[in-house]
Amino acid sequence: SRTVTRTPDGQVTVGGIEVARLAEEFGTPAYFLDEADFRARCQAWRDAFGPDADVFYAGKAFLSRAVVRWLHEEGLNLDVCSAGELTTALDAGMPAERIALHGNNKTPEEIERAVAAGVGHIVLDSFQEIVRVAHIADRLGKRQRVQIRVTVGVEAHTHEFIATAHEDQKFGIALAGGEAAEAVRRALKLDGLELVGIHSHIGSQIFDTAGFEVAARRVVALLAEIRDEHGVELPEIDLGGGLGIAYTSDDDPAEPHDIANSLREIVTRECAASKLRTPRISVEPGRAIVGPTAFTLYEVGTIKPLEGLRTYVSVDGGMSDNIRTALYDAEYSVALVSRSSDAEPMLVRVVGKHCESGDIVVRDAFLPADLAPGDLIAVPATGAYCRSMASNYNHALRPPVVAVKDGAGRVIVRRETEEDLLRLDVG
Ligand code: LLP
């Protein structure tokens, strides 16, 4: 990230602090998040989209009260997908009208809390949910602003588990076969709902922006159909998140302003062609904001050279703090950060301390051959979907998140303790 440098003796510093000091003060494994970088990325997204659009940070990537406050201060909105995320957002002072609620199976309790709190909009994900939200809003004497999530039928070129715009999956309502048009028909009839827009999210960790452009065109085409059938022009479209980030030097992600310019241009052009007023655009980046802002710091433990194969380097964390390698075959890089070394590079696999062989953090990487137990190594770009997907597998204690800024680290999510584990165990 922006404020990472290396001192002449090879120590990496982040936000002006040497990693050895960070390890001493906060322990390992730990995630270190560069607050200035996070804020700069928020600003880049806001600036790219401008005052006529909204940027909803996708809280699932990583959410904490500090993060909510930064988002609030930087003028971003927030997408939450559970009661837990909603509670965190409200507790940290995000105004309810700047929150959107997502999910393919929101419970009645979650819907009720969101409606009662007055969230900006709820994204409806199924025919059943249209009725469910309308009933709850009626009961609470409210009219809830909603969007309908459609699947536009584009194949996003990413891992199957994180692609969401093809039709054979659990999210959204298909544009194909008139399903989405029927959902709109039903939503417009219900007093408890104020249908304000159409939502599309095509997937995650996407580099080719063509998929977003196709989605934008198809969503605008639906707006035109809705205008023709019902005489209403929906004022909003949300094109979801999903912009990829660089995990290794092979990745070449688009910038927020590239995607903003191309979406704005397409939406404006298509709307003009259909004589529609240009709707307010919103987007929901998660990974692209928080992903690059953090790294995980590990201490090297057992080193096991396998003759003719590779060297297994075990660290003090693993799949409990980064499941992405095991789950998606995700690629990461790794660097020795506590000292410099002139030793030859050796082929390594960085593995965790968990009881299974799929517990891999970095599948293939090079580290200096003089690597030794006690060295500190860092895996960059772990800000998104690492702490948020962390587990207690093998009763691991989930690592802290430390915000680094102006030469000081501040714990924003503390390390779990054995007392935390035992507190939940009430048998
Ligand atoms: N909006 C919606 C409706 C979403 O479902 C998601 C992510 C986002 C926005 C944010 O997407 P992003 O900009 O972060 O790519 N655990 C997986 C990623 C799952 C993404 C789920 N939805 C991973 O670690 O790659």
Automatic annotation (TrEMBL):
The reaction(s) this protein catalyses: meso-2,6-diaminopimelate + H(+) = L-lysine + CO2
Domain Orn/DAP/Arg decarboxylase 2 N-terminal: 36-291
GO molecular function term, any single one: pyridoxal phosphate binding
Record pathway: Amino-acid biosynthesis; L-lysine biosynthesis via DAP pathway; L-lysine from DL-2,6-diaminopimelate: step 1/1
Entry's family note: Belongs to the Orn/Lys/Arg decarboxylase class-II family. LysA subfamily.
Annotated function: Specifically catalyzes the decarboxylation of meso-diaminopimelate (meso-DAP) to L-lysine.
Protein name: Diaminopimelate decarboxylase
Organism: Streptomyces aurantiacus JA 4570
